Amino acid sequence: MAPTTLAHGMGTVFKECGHGTAYWPRCPHPYKIRYRNAMGRQQQESGFTSREAAITRLVAVYNERKSAPANQTRTERIAKYGPMTFREYTREWKQGQRHLAPASLLHLDSLLEHHLFPALGTRRMDSFDHKVVEHFIRAMERAGTGLATQANAFDKLKAILLDAHRLGIYLDSPLLGVQAPVYDPKRAVIPSPAQLRVLRTVGDDTFQLLVDLMSGCGLRNGEAAAVNLNSIVAADTYRVTEQVNRTTKQYDRLKHRKRGEYRDVPLPPQVKATIERYAETHGTVDGYLLRHPHDRSRPYASYLLNNQWRRIKQTKKLDMPGGMVLYGFRHFFASNCLAHRIPITDVAEWMGHRNLEITFKTYRHLMPGTIGQAATILNTALAA
């Protein structure tokens, strides 16, 4: 489709799909940007979930290009940055990542220390090419690194090497032609309604509350841990405004949301009753139901739920699907919605997914429609 042209010399924002520009905010396809680097070569980046994120990136690139010393030639930049080790260059690059939240910085540090630096830390920056990057990906595969971690580590490596490419260290991008790892969620393991009825009663009151919030409202673990009585905004609506961050163990903005943003989700009567019963029995702190058992001034920590779940799973007599994890209760919410023909667009919004593709990829097999069913339904109107 026609790109959106910004200020002269800044670049363009566009999508490669059949939708018109007016539909782009609702379209699940990612935004892309095209611009010219410091050497005058055209570059393209993709994967932006919003037009604002794409423009922010273009502005950053433009400002970096404008702030580069006019008298600093490509040869001088190569002489300065080329001999740097990947570790040295990355530490300098990291200083410019001021937009990252504290939890994101901790996640970045973890990826660097456990995956990128051990494999690439001592390598000279001017020695990177597509073969080095592909070897790094294959090394992660051989080590049995999870696909989600592989994808995250590659994204960070990509950002660092693209930064070096913009400085002119490489004539051709070392990422050219590299097939990125793709995180493909495994098929969800979901308890049946009968199994759920048993599982929600095998732990303490806290466990039952968390299970009800995940299976009845579709909340993530951290969002359920931040449950607040004041978030019941209607008899049938719960407003999700924050989560307990697993890394910082503090209340934080929602995943994929800016601070202050929220989403409203359905509140089944049973879940509402569980919340109110828990508040009446155990009390609240500023509306929060769950607090750390040893220090009520602190939020509820996710490891406490994980510990209880591990003890429950050790009870071999319990009837539960093989391979089920805590997230299976959230999967139950999606399954229950789709089984009752609630539109997948609504399910994606309630679950807080960044785009519809994530919901579709994870839960497509749960959708009740088939080609045969569609043919029968469509024929009803045609034959009338």
Cα-to-Cα separation, first versus last residue? 40 Å
Query: Low-confidence parts lasting 5 or more residues at pLDDT below 50?
Result: none
Q: Could you report the average pLDDT, rounded to the nearest whole number?
A: 85
| Strand proportion | 5-15%
- Biggest sheet features: 4 strands, antiparallel
Major beta sheet, strand line-up: 1-2-3-4
The tally of helices reads: 15
Q: Give the SSE order as H and E letters.
A: EEEEHHHHHHHHHEEEEEHEEHHHHH
DSSP summary, beta strand count: 11
Label the structural class. Answer: alpha+beta
The helicity comes to 40-55%
Shape: globular
Give the radius of gyration.
Answer: 25 Å
Give me some keywords for this one.
384 residues; alpha+beta; three-stranded antiparallel β-sheet; 11 strands; globular
Written overview of the protein:
With 384 residues, the chain is an alpha+beta fold. The protein is 46% helix and 10% strand. The chain is built from 15 helices and 11 strands. The protein has helices at 51-67, 74-81, 86-94, 102-120, 130-142, 147-166, 193-199, 205-217, 221-225, 269-282, 302-313, 328-339, 344-351, 356-363, 371-382; strands at 4-5, 12-14, 31-36, 42-48, 232-234, 237-240, 243-244, 251-252, 263-266, 291-292, 295-299. The strands form 4 sheets. Strands 1-2-3-4 form a 4-stranded antiparallel β-sheet. The longest helix is centred in the middle third of the chain and has 20 residues, at 147-166. The relative contact order is 0.08.
